[in-house]
Amino acid sequence: MNCKNCNTEIIDGHLFCGKCGTSTETSISPLPSNPPSPKRKLRIVIVALLCLVGIAVGIFLLALGNVFDGVRDFIISDPTADIITALEEGDHAEALMLASEIEDSEPLLRRLEDRLVFLETDFRSENIDFSVVSAELNTIERMNVFGLSSTLNRVSNTVGALNASRTSFNTAEEFFARGNYADAITHYSLVIQDDSNFETALTGISNATNAYRNQVLAEADQFASTADYEKAIGVLNNGLLVIANDSELMQSLTLNEQRFVSYIISNADRALEAGNHDLAIRYIIDALRTVPDNEQLLRKIDEIETARPVNLLSLDPVSSSNWSPNETRTQIVLRHASFMTGVERSQAEFFVDRNYSTLRGTISADETLDPNAGLKFLVFADDTLVYESDYINRASTFDFEANIAGAQFIQIRVTNQRREGSSRTAGGRFTASDLFLTQ
Hints:
- The protein has 12 helices and 11 strands.
- By secondary structure, it is α+β, with helices and mostly antiparallel strands.
- It is rod-shaped, with a radius of gyration of 61 Å.
């Protein structure tokens, strides 16, 4: 600053001018003490009153605003939010009670539809347990909200299908670990495409199929090695029920069926060689239970039936005299009274319609036959003699075979022919049994 007397610059902090010695302090004159006027006092009072009124109005407006906010909140609040909160907290009884107090179901419908979508999404993501979802779905169903059934059913079906799929996957994994590949394949196949385990299940099916195939083939080979082809075929058929149309199993099945059929036909042929047609037929019929409709076996059974001897006595004779079959038609008894010298006979004639080539049987005479009798056994085919026995002796038995190929009718006959040196002969009784026609 400068000296007020000589205008010389004074260094800051100095109290006097270094040139003229004038003091740097400035004296301050006191203000005149004039009292305020009445108008001024009135203005002050008015301003103060206005301030008080403003403060009071502000307080009133603030209080009124709070009331309006409460009314607004009451008017626009959504009581369904409490229901959703109760569901989220697992308080299903509370949720049901709150839902029963709702008069307008439209807001609740929207809320619950959103909740159902959330539950479905959360379950797909495996963020929530099935038991929790199931309990909440049951509670929502009990609310009986109009218009919600379609969404509820869709979500319930989706959640149920996913839960069943996940259960099947876990079960399949357990079966596979225990070496039960058939059941593993079955349960892997139940995994649905919406399941996050679907791709893993496909891999599981492939691995289980390979392991099961090897298991079945090994078991079938073991049975076949002891000629137990029937069991080998059974194992392979069961395997094909699990992995249908598997080329390796089908190839092994075809091979074992061929072995089995050859084995059965060989047994049947041995039975036929022994003359046991019934046993041969039984072999074939039993085998057809294992390989139904097998053409080789069907042809073989036709062949056996065609070649099977037919009991002559199962046919009714077109004419007969002095003869009678027994009750079971296994034998015939030809009886003679006392025959005069000459030719007398007992006979029976049958219609065979050219179906047979041979007649076989056994003839026997009992003790009642007169030693002087001249009995003979004859077979005629269409009136042509095709077989004539020697004289029949008492207490004798013999087999015979006659060629009847092409004959429509055959006749069996017993004659009493005079023996040399005998003028009279006495008849007797003899039996013809096991009379069979063969082709």
